[in-house]
Write a structure and sequence with these properties.
By secondary structure, the chain is an alpha/beta fold. It has nine helices and five strands. The longest helix is centred in the C-terminal third of the chain and has 14 residues.
């Protein structure tokens, strides 16, 4: 029996999720919480295998897997949730079968990625075909170019996060992606390569 805790401020969403588990023989709701403090108490006092909610609390409990249905399911929001420890991030419009499948997978210790996010991770590993001058073609996203520009200014990851209003973990992901795409071993080398290719001005 999978024990599920609901974590959402939206009362209508909580009621919808409660109905979802009403007739399940393999899952049960251990409780519901609207606040981080309430969720912590629930996890401390009850057996919780999976937390199903709209966001990751600041002090996510490692004893439970998290399946999220955030209002913002953009690439960076998903990245932040995954770095914070979420096992799955689904669009809020996901159907009942999808939500139940994600809860089951998370309870088994599996992590799920939406296909677009998986594609973003896989793109980091791909090498573009060689250009006419023998150098590989490089494709950087607009956000990666923003991060590169900040790197060229000498900004640390924390400073970049503040400047672009994204999380520190998201910056780390973008920096790693940039280093891979530019085949660079350091930030300095990445900035030098980017400047030579015209992505940034020094």
């Amino acid at each position: 029996m999978i024990s599920v805790a609901l974590y959402a401020v939206d009362r209508a969403l909580r009621q919808r999720l409660e109905r979802l588990f009403a007739n399940r023989a393999d899952m049960e709701i251990s409780g519901a919480a609207e606040t981080q403090a309430g969720l912590k108490r629930l996890i401390d006092r009850s057996r919780v295998d999976v937390v199903l909610g709209t966001s990751m609390p600041d002090d996510a409990q490692a004893r439970a897997a998290f399946v999220l249905l955030p209002e913002d399911a953009g690439e960076e929001a998903i990245l932040e949730a995954l770095y914070a420890g979420a096992h799955a991030v689904l669009p809020a419009s996901s159907g009942d079968a999808t939500i139940l499948a994600a809860v089951t997978a998370a309870a088994e210790g599996l992590a799920l990625l939406p296909r677009p996010m998986l594609d973003a991770f896989l793109r980091v590993e791909r090498r573009a075909p060689a250009a006419a001058d023998g150098e590989p073609e490089i494709e950087l996203t607009p956000r990666e170019i923003e991060v590169l520009s900040a790197m060229a200014d000498g900004a640390s990851n924390k400073a970049i996060a503040r400047r672009l209003d994204i999380s520190f973990h998201t910056v780390k992901f973008h920096v790693a992606s940039i280093l891979t795409k530019l085949d660079a071993d350091s930030r300095t080398e990445a900035v030098t390569q980017a400047a030579r290719r015209g992505f940034v001005m020094l």
